[in-house]
Specification:
74% of the residues lie in helices and 0% in strands. The protein is an all-alpha fold. It has one domain.
């Protein structure tokens, strides 16, 4: 999640950094959205996630 959020939701960039296929990132993001009841396509939600990731890490 941290890599995806810091990559500004770019699947390709996150996938490259993690060394996985972009479809893997897409599936993981969908699972996170489902489990956390959030919509990461919303820029405000993504910004909140970035703040959380940076402050935790």
């Amino acid at each position: 999640m941290r890599v995806y959020a810091l990559a500004d939701a770019h699947l390709g960039s996150a996938a490259t950094e993690l060394g996985v296929h972009r479809h893997t990132i897409r599936a993981r993001v969908a699972k996170i959205e489902e489990l956390c009841h959030i919509d990461l396509s919303d820029p405000v939600t993504r910004a909140e996630v970035v703040v959380l990731c940076v402050s935790a890490g």
